[in-house]
Write a structure and sequence with these properties.
This protein is α/β, with parallel strands linked by helices and about 375 residues long. Helix content is about 40%, strand content about 15%. It is built from 14 helices and 15 strands. α2 (about 40-50) links the parallel β2 and β3 (about 55-60). α1 (about 15-30) packs across α7 and α8 (about 260-270) crosses α13. The structure holds NADP nicotinamide-adenine-dinucleotide phosphate (NAP). NADP nicotinamide-adenine-dinucleotide phosphate (NAP) binds near residues 17 and 180.
Length: about 375
């Protein structure tokens, strides 16, 4: 007998995207919602954050680094689950390979195993990243990638391996892989509630801590908002959308180059009196060899400000020399109403928010 109401299980529900997706399914009201978090403390925090809607959700602890993470998802529940949205992952670019393997790769394997034990499953949606294709250049289609181009860091490698785990081990499952671009803001207002490498790099530039940046001026950068990703992933989780790989990313014509992003950021920085007063210069773009020499050279000054600043940038440095042309025609066909925001307006609004709030330290602006 099939379940009367769809039952969706979201992993990583305490994280930035998982929480938004959980809230989205709760707000719809037509799904029964099961949210998984890594720890007990995470369960309390999520219940508090989503209240009062959390009273309608079942919040379950499932540490994907454990050998059998879903023991609290009992057999009766497994028989009722119709959708799994897998958003849990260690998302730091400087994660070590062993933790990335344990959580992102083997953890995804556990999710696939769970999916197999759900007889009424209509969709397994796996959140991936556009960097799961690693250092691959040129046109990248919405199809599985073999990882042959190599990777800039262990995070990317693990997300590539996790995709292959879904594709290879889940060949008889209704899977979808959503390769998400870099989330720079919650929405087009530029409001930022989660900082990532993009925001941290701009912060180092604003405070004059980076005199060199890795990258080529013409490298295209793919930006999205948290709202747009949540909407797209929720819709792709519906079996009405065909399964397969999707690029939840703008197409090349709606991207900015690294140089254009820096121009917009520094134009906004220079409107700030404190920034102008310090006469901070715009960092130079270094070729790959020079940047690697610099990182190697300052590693003997571990603990210094310059070393710490470079350590933030180094894990994704190689990616800044890679020109990807993401094809998103499958996304366009599945979600014709999906629109990429104007990239210059989005970056300007985001940098404005970051400068005004001093990267979240002036909390009254963030609220
Ligand atoms: N945000 C982006 O710009 C972006 C871009 C591309 C792709 N993605 C992908 O989208 C997904 C969600 O990203 P996000 O931005 O929401 O990341 P996030 O805020 O870091 O959330 C990740 C979640 O995974 C959980 N997690 C980590 N280790 C775990 C473990 N051992 N067991 C169970 N849960 C664990 C974290 O819980 P704790 O906090 O308790 O550790 C956290 O709640 C990830 O797969 C990421 O690769 C995100």
């Amino acid at each position: 007998m099939s379940p009367s109401r769809p039952v969706v299980l979201v992993t990583g529900a305490g994280g930035y995207l998982g929480r938004r997706l959980g809230r989205r399914f709760l707000d719809r009201g037509d799904h029964e919602v099961v949210l998984t978090v890594r720890t007990e403390a995470g369960r309390s925090a999520l219940a508090h954050d989503l209240a009062p809607a959390s009273a309608r959700a079942q919040i379950v602890v499932a540490d994907l680094g454990a050998p059998d993470p879903f023991t609290d998802v009992d057999e009766r529940l497994r028989r009722r689950i119709t959708h799994i949205v897998h958003a849990a992952a260690v998302t730091r670019f400087n994660v070590d390979r062993e933790l990335a393997r344990q959580v992102n790769v083997e953890g995804t394997g556990h999710v696939v195993t769970l999916a197999r034990q759900c007889p009424h499953l209509v969709r397994l949606a796996h959140l991936s990243t556009v960097y799961a294709t690693g250092l691959r250049e040129g046109v990248i289609l919405e199809e599985p990638d073999d990882g042959a181009a190599g990777f800039a860091n262990a995070y990317e490698w693990s997300k590539g391996a996790a995709e292959r785990c879904v594709v290879d081990q889940g060949d008889d499952l209704p899977w979808t892989v959503a390769r998400v671009a870099t989330v720079v803001a919650d929405d087009e207002s530029g409001r930022v509630t989660q900082h990532n490498a993009f925001h941290e790099t701009l912060k180092l530039c604003f405070y004059g801590l980076l005199s060199l940046l890795p990258g080529r001026a013409d490298t295209p950068l793919y930006f999205v908002t948290g709202d747009a990703v949540t909407d797209a992933v929720a819709r792709l989780s519906d079996p009405a959308a065909p399964g397969g790989v999707y690029h939840v990313a703008p197409d090349r014509s709606a991207t900015l180059t690294l140089e254009q992003v820096l121009d917009l950021a520094f134009t906004r920085f220079e409107q700030d009196e404190e920034f102008r007063h310090k006469r901070i210069l715009r960092p130079l773009l270094a070729d790959r060899e020079s940047f690697e020499l610099l990182v190697g050279g300052v590693s003997s000054f571990a603990g210094s400000l310059v070393h710490r600043a470079l350590a933030n940038v180094a894990p994704f440095a190689r990616q800044m020399y890679v020109a990807k042309v993401l094809d998103n025609r499958r996304l366009g066909a599945a979600l014709p109403q999906h629109r990429a925001p104007d990239p210059a307006a989005l970056v300007t609004a985001t940098v404005d928010h970051l400068v005004e709030s001093r990267w979240g330290r002036r909390s009254e602006v963030v609220a």
